[in-house]
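Side project, low priority. Logging it here so it doesn't get lost.
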Amino acid sequence: MTDPCCPSVDFPGREKLVRAIDAAIASGDQHAVTAAVRNALCRLIKDRDVRLPDCVHEPIVDHYARRELYRSPQHGYSVVAMTWGPGQGTPLHDHSGLWCVEGVWDGELEITQYELLERDGERFRFRAAGGIHAGAGSAGSLIPPHEYHTIRNASADAVAVSLHIYKAEMACCAKFLPERPGAGDEWFVREDAALKTDEAA
């Protein structure tokens, strides 16, 4: 029986995925853990025994989809599949202080990291600190305070799928919106955001 506090969706290879992440979680401090989870995720994406549920390949028209597939009752980590329709992406955001490992399962994603330069109350000044085009099979990690980034599916016609392993359930985050949209400056205003979870079946 599934613990209602720790969601779990059945799919081929789920136990193999869980065993690999559980083993990685035992690696030590957060730097060792994220490195081990990243390596495990790169292997799992290529493992034909592991197939994410069909629903994760179905985009939602008006927003990128977040479907929680598993939450560990023992370790507390959360596994979330995200589905990105053509052109869908995130605003600049943080991860509420949680480490995360993100891997591209299908398609390609454009990921831009940001460096926080200055804070003035609820105003923040950021600078883009590098971007990558991540293809299927690649994975990266975010460890606070280096957690500010955007993700976008730049394709005009292809769907992308990514798998995210968070230290714990990520139910909210802060997003940062340009203070003067279109002005091209580096100042952003912080806004708290509750993260919606879409149904996974």
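Brief comment: Residues 109 and 153 are 5 Å apart (CA to CA).
Revisit when time allows.
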